Amino acid sequence: MGLQALIGLLARHAASYMDLGAAAASEWRSALMQRIALLGMALALGVAGLVALWGAGLLLLWDTPWRVAYAFISAALLIIIAFSALRGALGSRSAGPSAGALKSELQKDMELFQQWKSTL
Questions:
Q1: 3 state DSSP class of 116
Q2: pLDDT tens readout for residues 26-44
């Protein structure tokens, strides 16, 4: 095998990695954009719903001795819910299929490289 053929083979191999890497990056970007859009929608609708619910509860308990307890308990509950939602949003997610294929191809190439090194 001539040097030009080897360089051509390596160039095609590198181009395949570039294509696979671009596909993995595209999947990652799509998943990130979807997650950001869903988080934004959940945040906006959740805040609006909680404001309405909290206001209705406060109006219901306005002339009772439970008004102050309601305010503190509802604030603590909201903080707990916000913390658990944040943990869920920032938790790890699984990689897409292209990322797995890229990792698999890199491992195969490392094995072939190790075999080639042992023949030298």
A1: helix
A2: 888 888 898 899 989 988 9
